[in-house]
Design goal:
By secondary structure, the protein is α/β, with parallel strands linked by helices. The protein has helices spanning about 5-15, 25-40, 50-55, 60-70, 85-95, 110-125, 155-165, 190-200, 215-220, 230-250, 255-275, and strands at about 20-25, 45-50, 75-85, 100, 130-135, 140, 145, 170-175, 180, 205, 225-230. Helix 2 (about 25-40) packs across helix 11 (about 255-275) and helix 10 packs antiparallel against helix 11. The longest helix has 23 residues, at about 255-275. It binds zinc ion (ZN).
């Protein structure tokens, strides 16, 4: 069933586990995520970035997501990842997304608060939950590029003020992860996660979580991370499976034969994540 993001994340917050939010761009990815969620009995968040919406079209993504949620035996939320534009966020709400992110991290604190409040006023009126971002997460997410030097960690005092003033449902924090493929091993600021959690007491979101070591993920979850975004790991599983298949079967031209193994490869990764995050068995 389709549920709001906060319905899923409030339980995760209360019971100290995290739910995976996986980026979708086509039918095979949606199916891989839903099958993994059903097989592990896990709640799940399907999310689409602005780039994903541009690629597939908001109508296609919304229809795929809602159909998948309707048919699923587990709770599913449909979420907009990194909405930077008010109109785009409204479009997603109109098309039935049950959760949206307004990323105002390019603004100073007051500007970020202002745009977040504006989105929340509308979203909450129609029962859609909202994620915001405070601090700047480094790396490249579609057309959003944040240079490593411009990435800034979330200030706990600002986080408290931000949450009090906006009434945001869940907050993405910058604590050392980055979007894309890591060059070295990411170093997470665990003390900062703990402090922010104590000060805001709402579900916290970790972006750029592909490639973060298992132990670091477990610790981050134990300290209060409740939503974990995964995109790069799925991309790698998808493309590696296709490369392998075509290497062994260079003359195969059947899209089903080519994409089938990619779907299975993604599903295996997603199931592992669900076990690691602690959402398995929570649906
Ligand atoms: Zn992100």
């Amino acid at each position: 069933m389709l549920v709001t993001g906060i319905e899923i994340l409030q339980d995760a917050h209360k019971n100290n586990y995290a739910v995976g939010a996986f980026n979708v761009n086509n039918m095979e990815i949606v199916q891989a995520i839903i099958e993994a969620a059903e097989e592990t009995n896990s709640p799940v968040i399907l999310q689409a970035s602005q780039g994903g919406l541009k690629y597939a079209g908001v109508e296609y993504i919304a229809a795929l997501g809602k159909l998948a949620a309707e048919k699923a035996k587990v709770p599913v939320a449909l979420h907009l990842d990194h909405g930077t534009d008010f109109d785009q966020v409204m479009l997603c709400i109109r098309h039935g997304f049950s959760s949206v992110m307004i990323d105002g991290s390019r603004f100073e604190l007051e500007g970020n608060i202002a745009i977040t409040k504006k989105v929340i006023e509308v979203a909450h009126a129609v029962g859609v939950s909202v994620e915001a971002e405070l601090g700047k997460i480094g790396g490249t997410e579609d057309d959003i590029v944040v240079d490593e030097r411009d990435a800034t960690f979330t200030d706990p005092k600002e986080a408290k003020k931000f949450v009090e003033e906006t009434n945001v449902d869940y907050l993405a924090i910058a604590v050392g992860t980055a979007h894309g493929v890591y060059k070295g091993e990411p170093k997470l600021d665990f003390e900062r996660i703990k402090t922010i959690k104590e000060m805001v007491n709402i579900p916290l979101v970790l972006h750029g979580s592909s490639g973060v070591p298992k132990e670091a993920i477990e610790k981050a979850v134990s300290l209060g991370i409740n939503k974990i975004n995964i995109d790069t790991d799925l991309r790698m599983a998808f493309s590696n499976a296709i490369k392998d298949f075509l290497k062994e079967n260079p003359d195969n031209i059947d899209p089903r034969k080519i994409l089938g193994p990619a779907k299975e490869a993604m599903k295996e990764i997603i199931k592992e994540k669900m076990e690691l995050f602690g959402s398995a068995g929570r649906a």
